[in-house]
Structures are given as C-alpha cells and as structure tokens.
Amino acid sequence: MSTPENVSFKSQGLKIAAHLYRPVPGSPDRKGAAVVIAHPWTSIKEQSPANYARVLSQAGFYCLCPDAGYQGESEGEPRGLEDPYQRVEDIKNAVTFLVGHADVSSDRIGALGICAAGGYVPFAAQTDTRIRAVGTSAAVCVGTMARRGFDQDSSSLEALRSQLGAAAASRNSDVGAGAPVPLVDMLPPSLEAAPRDLPESFRDLTSYYKTDRGRNLAANQTHPRGWDLMANFDALRHNDMISPRPLLMITGTKAATRWYSEDGVANAKEPKELYVIEDKTHADLYDRIDEAGKKLVEFYGQYL
C-alpha cells in the first residue's frame, strides 16, 4: 500500500489539505501520470477517495485526494458549506499543484470525481484542458439533485423553496436578523435509527456512512446556505466540451443515481463510455470497487 503524504495548496485564498499517494514500489512505470480524486458531498478524502487512490497507486499512478474548501481539514468559513464553484476551483488548483510537482508529468494528469464530485470533475474539465482524462463513479450533479431529487423527480420545487428559505435565514443571521440556522444532518445517525419511510437511496448511503464501512471524521452535515449556491448549478450540461479528451462514467445497475451518468454521457461527444456494473448500488461504488477500480486503471492507463 502507498502511505499518503500530507500536502496542501491554495484555492480561492483557502489552504486546501490533501493526501498525495505515490506509486507503490514495483508498480508499472506510468511516466509520471497522476489523477486528482475528488470526494462526495459531506464526505472527506479519507473515505471513498482513499479506496480509489490505493487501487490506482498500486497500478503506478500518483493520486492527489483533497478535502474541499470549507470541509474536512481544509480552510474556510462557514464550515460545511457546499459551494460548487469552490469545489471546481479546488479541482483545478489540485491540477496546478500536480503540474508543479517534480515527479509528475504535466501532460499526463487526469481526474476522478465520486458522487457530487462526479459532477464537479466533468464541469472543471469542460474548461480546464490540462485534465487529459475524465472519470466519474456514481456521479451526481448537485444542482440537478436540488431541483429534481437524488433518484430523479423524487422531490419537488416546494422542498427546494424550503431549503432556499433556510439559506436566506442563515444569511440574515450574519447581521443579527434572526437566529443562526443549524447545520443540516443529511443522514440518520445509524441504520437502526433510520425512519421506516427513509427512501432506499438514503438507506443505501446510511449503510456506508453510518456503519464501519465508511464511518470516519465526516459528520455528513452541510451548511444550509449551500442550497442557494447549488440550486441553479448544472454540471453535466456541457459535457460535449470535454471532447476530444475521453470521458468514462461508471455507475451500477442498482444505483438510484444511474440516470445522472446516463445523462452525462448522452451530453458528451466521443470518446465517451458509460460503464454499468451489475448489482452495484450508489454507495457500493464508494468501497466495493474491484471492478470499478480495474476499469479505471485500464482507462487512465490508455489515455494518460
């Protein structure tokens, strides 16, 4: 296994904490190829990104796993804020960090986004041509999710209006116009505490984040004013701009979010691929990644 090195870089004035995984000794010589791996919403670098980094570093790739601004060990106030444009800048500045690394080849840098970052990574690559190969696993666009739900049309604009109301109240509290609005718990504290009517897609997430599979330092909380930053964000609409660089979007047959990857690939031009893994849910693609990892090794091996 590659032991990660603590590194940092600046993004929009924030100090971003990251783990750098070097190729495992004896692994294939990839001539300095590297992959930025970005984490899901309400997650951190030690969770699903670390799982993918171990697979890719064993295959000879450098891997850089940052914590998003406002989250994890990175700087930023208010804590827990999900800012799509900060997230995209974090990815682009992670690429800049790798460009400046003596052991990395600047023309062999790819990126991998997991869950919400499966929207941020393509969005970043649409305009950052330094990202030479674009991969996603269990991709979600947070803006589309805010408008249409996690598993397609499961929420209404009424729910979004309520969330935007909380965001507005949170902003007003900065000048004493009302009490501060608390962070939002995205998941129940455990599977046992989950309400009986919890949607299966959120039960799937709980089975990862609130069990030994994924339990870590992340509290799965988000700041309420993130919704007014996410609500009109559209990560995958312009995926055609990634071409002629390659796009691979991985999902599972049981993933409630499969439709995001289908839409993302439909919006792209060649070379592109939708890779669907049998019997895998959304959260399965966080840690049960034997097939997904093998596919990504092949993908980055071919294009980087």
From TrEMBL:
Domain AB hydrolase-1: 36-286
Domain of life (superkingdom): Eukaryota
UniProt name for this protein: X-Pro dipeptidyl-peptidase (S15 family) protein
UniProt record similarity statement: Belongs to the polyketide transferase af380 family.
Pfam families, per the entry: Abhydrolase_6
InterPro entries noted in UniProt: AB_hydrolase_1, AB_hydrolase_fold, Polyketide_trans_af380
SUPFAM superfamilies attached to this UniProt entry: alpha/beta-Hydrolases (SSF53474)
